[in-house]
């Protein structure tokens, strides 16, 4: 080994996963709150509030997050604590008091669960018309559960084995997947259905495996979905994306887990077969990339030839600070991760606690982007994943004497909408597309009539 090779080996080991001690996966849910040792140091009132909120919204955390990501000296302000542990403000005061009153009078479990379900249905559990407009149907008109096909080139698939996560994010827009109500769940159990749909839709170039988190699945299940896609019949499926938070919440999935080696080999095999494999990593704070296990997992994945792209929403109490985003993007680039999306928190679940006004979101994005080099400016946003499509806030401007938001579609239900700028009246309180109004006295958006026609057609079919 020459001197240069020795230096490179020390600074960028090919596979140092063996140097990271493996730890067993230990998870806690609502019924385990009293077993999470650091919580015993919190006031009893705070623990009661957690119990109330986690009755309505899902809670799940693991020992790795508790031990290695949360700075318990900073609780309750620690960002990863806010990311994973229930906070009273996540429910409206009326919703909170309704559940709290039931606990105080020792109501039975069935009564509490019935009240929780009623509240859940008031929290817009499936935003952006995803149940009504995104799910395709077969030739007989039956809805294909677990598939979403909103944009021409991209199909989302929700494998039933992947409909949980190693820990849950408190702001998650797919929280309804995890509350045990089958009427709110999107999932499919048959790989055959997915493969048949893709075989029939050659316009699809990208498959996004999502959840939950597909990385909770055993590798043998992933093989059953992915390996048939290496057949020439699926050459049109050029990119396989895997949405995951495992690099943050359980990097040992890629290191010392029982079938981690098989998973790494599967990713490498797909790359060798000519597929572009992208792990769509969900990051909310730079601290998630600081641990030795996280960095070893990143390196090991990159060695397969797979690309890691980073995305996440702007959320109050966690990352509503341009310095956090600038440091996060710089860290990602230094680790070989591609910054991808800067999302706006969706209009669902605990949005009242986490949402940030669009004007402030754009300012945070702008100030963060100004602090990084061009390699980190691949992060697009602020982006709203609304029913018509992904709408980006490009900025605030004054046009013809009127202060406006400058908007554009990054993706749209009609591809012709993409990259066409349009304008909304400036509103410093608006947090989502439906709260905005067209600028310059226009009665409608340029895309509105066509969108309504598409929506009416989809709803008619759904009925």
Strand order across the largest sheet: 3-4-5-6-7-8-9-10-11-12-13
Elements, N to C (H/E): HEHEHHHHHEEHEHEHHEHEHEHHEEEEH
Instruction: Describe the sheet with the most strands.
Output: 11 strands, mixed
The level of helicity is 25-40%
The rough form would be described as: globular
| Mean pLDDT across residues | 91
**How many β strands by DSSP?**
13
How big is the Rg? 23 Å
Structural class: alpha/beta
**N-end to C-end Cα span:** 68 Å
Determine the strand fraction and express it as a percent band: 15-25%
DSSP helix count?
16
* Unreliably modeled segments: 1-15
Tags for this entry?
alpha/beta, disordered N terminus, 16 helices, 463 residues, globular, 11-stranded mixed sheet
